[in-house]
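Give me structure tokens for this 122-residue protein.
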Amino acid sequence: MKFISEILIGMIAILHIYILWLEMFAWTTRGRKTFKSIPPDLFEKTKALAANQGLYNGFLAAGLIWSLFIADTAWSANVAYFFLGCVMVAGIYGAITAQKSIFFIQTVPATLALVITLLAQH
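Here you go.
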């Protein structure tokens, strides 16, 4: 169960590294194809805001990766709980304010990883 938890945490971290790249470096190119609900003329105007969001996604990825390298299992799980919880909240907020699909892309996998991580500790 612990191995599955680590795989899921790693996959969510990779997702957030991708989001970092998308929002910080590909906002005006790939971002247009991903976020179709945003009018095309806003991508250039919101480039700095998107980069800021990308940076925060990078922090989420860093925290999840960090949790995988902590030797103490209780401390590792607590760090994972915190960052998975942050991903869940960010996904809910993003689904409400930006695009409904964010719930399924971020919140659902983070919730699954959190449940598996909780089960792995017992």
